[in-house]
Amino acid sequence: MAAANPGTVGAGSVQHGPAAKSKAASDALAHTQGGATPQQPVPAYERFIPVTTLALVDRLTGADAWPEGHHQQARRFFRYLDFWRRQQHSRKLMSLLRAYEPFDPDSDLLITRQYTPDEKKRLQKRTVSDVKRVLERANYVAIDPKSVELILTKDSHYGLDLQVDLGVFEECLLYYRGKSTKRDKRTNYRKFLRKEEFDVPIYRRLLLLFKLKPFDVRVREIMAEKNLSEKEAAKVVARLRGSLPVEVKEDNIYIKLFKNIPRNDLEMVFPNTRVRFRLLDKIKLGVTGGGAVGMGLFGTAGKLAAGGLTVANPIALMGALAGLGGIAFRQGVNFFNQKQRYMVVMAQNLYFHAMADNRGVLIKLGERGAEEDVKEEILLYSVLAKEKCKRSDLDHIDAAIESYLMKTFAIRVDFDLPDALERLLADGIVTEDADGTLLTLQPAEAAQLLDRKWDRFLDDLPDGTKPEGLEIDAEDFPHL
């Protein structure tokens, strides 16, 4: 790689070695706005680039970062690339939405097509597979739902003890994007009820996809797990499903997107979350309830011990017993009220964390995936268009881009260079010689290439495959 100054393309003396290559790539990303100096502790590495496309374009197309006149051409090419990449994602998203339509619980469209069980199973697998692909494009990271250390934790930020049965799901995806912390306040009982601030680890975005297992499948599993008869297992499954909202059906695939979910409260996003009492609440209810009932029993026993009082005055006996029953009833009410308060806390916090559901999630993810691709590509292009590079130089380019993002925006990113390069190669913006040399079109030529591709886009659309299912007549349409 040749060491380039900000206003040159491939100019400068040839240098050798990893340091020279990284320095040349860094110079290729130089801009006039100046870098940002981090004022806070350096954050952890992220899989996505948490800045807008416009912010990157403004900095990467500074007048001093390109030869004379090229910065305007570079800006024009980046705008073309943005529209082109989003169109590519829109085509794939359309295919995903069509596959998801039979499973969408929010659809308000007339159902005109029936599917065989095998066809529905194929569509289900395709939907889940395509959702994973979109999540990866948007730089989301998978969480194993079966990981007890991450999911079934007792250290709850909202003071809830939650439990989830993961065995009810036929499909279950849990993905996050962006680890961070937020400041919150709590009462410290050791400091005379004073309020203190503390950091809450959160996931900036959290996605949950789930589909329930068919009832009969779950019954057979319970029969095998607990050695029960079919009738007994059916009662167990029916009781457990009774905790689910009535709208949750086993034929649907549900997709939920949340924001700023505390990492210790992931259970709250599942539909079958059960609230249990914390140890502190159990002690509190036990002490107050036991004390009240004990005092009631003591008082009642004293009255019963008062000779023939019960025979001479049965009304007094009834009153004593009614008082004891009232105490027990009040403690029962306290128990249910505490559980209700738990449910209210969970519902209120989910309300403010929810971002989108089902089809809306897919549309949002498609847009975010396209945006991530564009940001990765313009960063990589800004190096390749100015430097003579080989595939063997990619590690140094990757390090230079990550250094640039840290210097400019004070963010640490695990840059996804190989995928960005493959997309530029697939579009012909970058070509590769037999010796691994990467040849890159200059901004004006690259923009013209995308212009020609756009003109042919509709002509090059594939005819598509035969859709699953069979169209039915109007008299067979199910009621909406």
Low-confidence spans: 1-16, 289-293
Instruction: Assign the structural class, choosing from mainly alpha, mainly beta, alpha/beta, alpha+beta, or little secondary structure.
Output: alpha+beta
Q: How would you spell out the order of helices and strands?
A: HHHEHEHEEEHHEEHHHEHEHHEEHE
Rg, Å, rounded:
31 Å
Strand content: 15-25%
The neighbouring-strand order within the major sheet is: 2-4-5-6-8
- Quote the distance from N terminus to C terminus: 64 Å
- Number of domain units: 3
Number of separate strands: 12
Count of DSSP-assigned helices: 14
Largest sheet: 5 strands, antiparallel
Spatial shape: globular
Query: What fraction, in percent, of the residue positions are helical?
Result: 40-55%
Taking all residues together, what is the mean pLDDT? 78
Outline:
By secondary structure, this protein is α+β, with helices and mostly antiparallel strands. 49% of the residues lie in helices and 15% in strands. The protein folds into 3 domains: 18-91 and 361-456, no CATH class; 102-276, no CATH class; 280-343.
